[in-house]
Amino acid sequence: MPIMDFLERNAMLYGDETALIEVNPEQEEPGKITWKDYALIQPTTNEYYRRQISWSVFNEKANRMANMLISRGILKGNKVGILMMNCIEWLPIYFGILKAGAIAVPLNFRYSSDEILYCANLAELDILVFGPEFIGRIEAIEEKLSKNRLLIYVGQSCPTFAEDYSELVSYHSSRNPELDITDEDDAAIYFSSGTTGFPKAILHKHRSLVHSAKVEQNHHGTSRDDCFLCIPPLYHTGAKMHWFGSLISGSRAVILKGTKAEYVFRTVSKERCTIVWLLVPWAQDILAALDSGALKIKDYKLSQWRLMHIGAQPVPPSLIRHWKDYFPNHQYDTNYGLSESIGPGCVHLGVENIHKVGAIGIPGYGWECKIVNPDSTPVKQGEAGELCVKGPGVMVEYYNDPKATAEVLKDGWLYTGDVAMQDEDGFIFLVDRIKDVIVSGGENLYPVQIEDFLRTNDKILDVAVIGLPDDRLGEIAGAIIKLKEGVECTEEEINEFCLSLPRYKRPKKIIFADVPRNPTGKIEKPLLRKLYGKEKLVAYENEK
Questions:
Q1: What is the pLDDT of residues 371-388, one digit of tens each?
Q2: What confidence tens digit (pLDDT) does each residue in 305-324 have?
Q3: β-pairing verdict for 438-440 and 443-445
Q4: How many domains does the chain have?
């Protein structure tokens, strides 16, 4: 069954129950909702902006979107892009695209005008749906973007170069179009994060989406009594595929617009959230606020919060140990995945395996894993090699890029580009990205291992280790360190702290600066290498 069938089922069984809640703590009053198509979205007058939508209304809105697209000539296999910030309209639009038999193509909200145009052309978009935050970026490329392509605007005060979403959908039926869509039909194109180059278009079938929903429920036991707090961007596979646990169980979810620690606690408390997926920086912010006393657990109703899980990047074991000091009764899970494997869960720690914190875990529900040498032969147990995964959630291809596809898909296995090793108990540990490995004087240095060590320093909030050019060794390890607020620290202190590391692993350059991360929490190492290349490093040294 395609993923939309779960929405139809929920509308039938739980129609009047709340499906989605949107919370924006930075907007004090809800204001007047004038989009007539959304008259059934219920604004409330709490202390912060809040809207909610039932399962039946969710389904009706998706059906209206689907029927509108069909009326505009959209056929099975056409592509419809979504360029919107997280909001309550996002998922009904996404499901409307799927119900029309079209391929949904979410776009990163950080894309520049040129990147939007590049991705629209690469994915061969027929329609682009965009929100008010992107008017300027769309207007800059409108002449090229709108050529043989319909632009649909979601918001108030529609620009002249687009058609108004609320006007378009209001005239169409709220009944399911009932097209013949199967698990083997193409469903979505997601773009790679671009941390290792320009984004690639990743094509998935409906079976991938359905499998991700089954994985999420199997791993985290999402039930009708749960409430999932969704913070990360919905354009990314991670947030949406974790929300699929709510879809498959027919339970509530809250879309929180804001990442501040106080916002998370207030929303968990007021909405009675039970499951929260965090990125490493947000978990660090919460712990820092608790440590400083800016946030106090006693001020909130958090007893129902049962699970905190983290993904999208390596998780420092010290962070989880610190978290358990404050929340000893929380279940914890680490989720590993790629957009090429339909997001999180092809490897996961498992809530019962917290004694193995530091590992990314074991093969997920329905997944297989292996670790191989460069010639694709299996490594010996305990040795490092490339992690490969296989299962129903592997992508079809990099769309319009057969060469890149052939490089990562081999005999049904997805070669992840991540270096990993497996211990004697079968748990997989992520060592690093292959492209991030530093070769210094013939020795392989794995930045993640050095980063994990540095994060055990109480003065360090975040850190990234990259290879910096060196005339003698080829590369040296450089540590970009972000200190905790109000803390002072010197290079000498860091160097002394690193004396317990083997000499070849010690960072040779210490740079105190911000650690940039993309919206999914991954460190932007290509940007750091650009910022601190040889010439930039000389300039940095001269400024000190």
A1: 999 999 999 988 989 999
A2: 999 998 766 677 888 999 99
A3: antiparallel
A4: 2
